[in-house]
Specification:
It is a multi-pass membrane protein. It is found in: Cell membrane. The two termini are 39 Å apart. Helix 3 runs antiparallel to helix 4 and helix 4 runs antiparallel to helix 5. Helices cover 78% and strands 0% of the residues. The protein has 2 domains: 100 residues; 69 residues.
Length: 169
């Protein structure tokens, strides 16, 4: 009975596979939104003010960072929690694939969130005259919370790696 339960629990990791596949649909949605921005930008680029252009470009960078985050979570999450990706020798393989454990994945996600938040905050500051001061303050507080969280997660990960290195010696 114990072996059956353990096998069932171990096999249930495959329930994550459709979730990672669903993230690829999110990536498709991001790509559609990105090119929608491009198609709106190109015909109007000569008539746009510099600030407007920068805001649109920051929005596109934001979408790109979120896309990269999705790819990282999909591939690393699948490899860490479901199954190794069997990529043939003839195909190009990402150099970080197979090297990111769940701890480093969390740190990469946290760093990506800080980068995305930074770009969002920059967009907000570019339009600061149209945003009330109390909202600006909240944007900064939320961003600093992300920064602090990422720093603490990185620090804790660093401490746990040092503890593991001491245990090896």
């Amino acid at each position: 009975m114990e072996r059956f339960v353990e096998n069932l629990i171990y096999t249930s990791r495959w329930l994550l596979a459709p979730i990672y596949l669903g993230l690829s649909l999110g990536l498709l949605a991001l790509a559609i939104k990105f090119f929608q921005e491009v198609f709106h930008l190109l015909p109007n680029v000569l008539a746009m003010a510099e600030n407007e252009l920068v805001l649109v470009l920051l929005s596109m960078i934001d979408l790109t960072l979120v896309g990269g985050l999705l790819v990282m979570v999909m591939l690393s999450g699948y490899e860490n929690f479901v199954s190794r990706l069997d990529i043939s020798e003839h195909r190009e393989k990402l150099n970080w694939l197979g090297k990111m454990d769940s701890g480093s994945l969390k740190n990469k996600v946290a760093a990506s969130i800080v980068a995305i938040s930074s770009i969002h905050l920059l967009r907000v500051f570019m339009d600061a005259r149209n945003i009330p001061d109390n909202k600006l303050l909240w944007y900064v507080i939320i961003h600093l919370t992300f920064v602090l969280s990422a720093f603490v997660m990185g620090y804790l990960d660093s401490m746990s790696r040092k503890d593991k290195d001491k245990d090896k010696v």
